[in-house]
Amino acid sequence: MTDSTTPVRVRFAPSPTGKLHVGGARTAIYNWAFARANGGTFILRIDDTDPTRSTDENTQVILRAMRWLGLDWDEGPEVGGEYGPYWQTECLPLYREAAERLVAEGKAYYCFCTPEKLEADRKAAQERKDPFQGYQRTCRDIDPAEAQARVDAGEPYTIRIKVPLDRGDVVVHDAVHGDVTFNARELDDFIIFRSDGTPTYNFATVVDDARMGITHIIRGDDHLSNTPRQIMVYEALGAPTPTFAHISMILGADGKKLSKRHGATSVEEYRDAGYLSDAFVNYLSLLGWSPDGESTVIPRERLAREFSLDHVSKNPAIMDPKKLDFINAEYLHAMSDEEFADTVLIPQLHAADFEPVGECTHDAAWYDLLASALKPRTTLSADVVEQARYLYTADDELAYDEKAVKKWLGKAGASDALDTAIEALEVLDEDAWTPEAIETALEPLPERLGMGKGKVFQPIRVAVVGGAASPGIGETLALAGRAHVLARLERAKGLTQ
Ligand code: GLU
């Protein structure tokens, strides 16, 4: 085991065979937070040894996702570090060297068994009902000089680890699952180097984790069954075994492994759907961890301060899109109007290619007012686009929601409501065109007309916005501007009966 006084070094080691998925992102978050909470080092390593599935493009997608998540790494691609290379494909000579050293020390050996021989041995073990059906250790005792001669003569070989026969149980002291015991006999003298000259995952990962001085390995519990084999490699290499923490899978609401069927699965999809990075990280961090069992909003700084492995649950976590939306909305609502305008509103309006129409001044105060009006009604950043559309549409091009027109403009009294509104608003000049002044001007209308508030204000709203939902009537009209409001009220009279 690593000494508890050793400075913490953790790594996130994605294989660039696809996008960064939510499960991988949560593993990255836990590693990052654990490093930050312990004043340690967070390393990013690219496990790109699978040549058929790893691509540079996928690596770039993962790096972009990591940056969007705000998980800054202290060593790895782009930042370098003293423990490079940080790409496994650049480490092939290191793996070979390590494997050959183990052979020279008698801790690993060359195996010349052909696939046909291995298959025949397996069948025979099955037939004689041998409880051990793994590799029969055929080549374990070949004289090393003879083995070397066969290798030199060009005979195909793999390299296998020599699991000590008296090793007994291998116990993984897992920080999440507790002690998990595996029978060393079942482990087999497994292959560390394939006949094509490439290292296996269980070997390459340990060579790297050992040379990088990784103290804690936090990863998905789909790797728990690999861990006893990896412990055998640490022991053979004479390297201290790190602390393991295997975190549970993320499941969909139906209890099945999260997949496309459940909706978005990659970080990119969530980013593009308009989730805030802080909210997304907050949500994912709670899938299996909680500082106190109740907090929902946990800012990044708190996560980086309080994350600990003792509070990680071993039960599977269930992805809950409603909770994610709730947390995202909490983050949006906590922003100042100015921040909301700068980081959400303006970029979204820009992305939607909205251009101001007619005469209107969109100054900072206008954006702040729009931000304060829309913020409480926003769950995802992109929600602002539809809500602001009426402000970027020419008066004669405003599209009306049919149902809203029928309900609010098609009824008796609507025409009176519009007429009296025009009268009441015309007297306000440009300078007095504020939400408060507009509300004050409209307030007496229901009583004056002897009509309910809805019957008066909804026709006005539909006339200006095109639909029946919008922020308060004062803000809605103030934002649209005096000339546009009056023109739209006039136009909507044509829709009344
Ligand atoms: N590249 C491996 C994976 O993505 C890393 C597993 C590990 O953390 O050891 O599954």
Q: In a few lines, what is going on in this structure?
A:
The protein has 497 residues and is mostly helical.
Structural commentary:
The structure is a single chain. The chain has a 3-stranded antiparallel β-sheet with strand order 3-4-7. It has a two-stranded parallel sheet with strand order 1-2. It is mainly alpha-helical and 497 residues long. The mean pLDDT is 95. It folds into 4 domains: 1-76 and 248-334, HUPs (Rossmann fold, 3-Layer(aba) Sandwich); 92-200, Glutamyl-tRNA Synthetase, domain 3; 337-392, Helicase, Ruva Protein, domain 3; 396-495, Arc Repressor Mutant, subunit A. It has helices at residues 22-37, 56-69, 92-104, 115-127, 144-152, 184-187, 201-211, 227-237, 267-272, 277-285, 300-306, 321-333, 337-351, 364-374, 383-388, 402-409, 414-426, 435-442, 445-449, 453-465, 473-480, 482-493; strands at residues 9-12, 41-44, 108-111, 158-161, 169-174, 178-183, 191-193, 216-220, 243-247, 250-251, 317-318. The chain contains 22 helices and 11 strands. It is elongated and about 105 Å long. Bound molecules: glutamic acid (GLU). Glutamic acid binds at residues 13-15, 47, 205, 219, 223.
Name its key features.
497 residues, mainly alpha, Rossmann fold, Glutamyl-tRNA Synthetase, domain 3, Helicase, Ruva Protein, domain 3, 4 domains, three-stranded antiparallel β-sheet, two-stranded parallel ribbon, 22 helices, 11 strands, binds glutamic acid
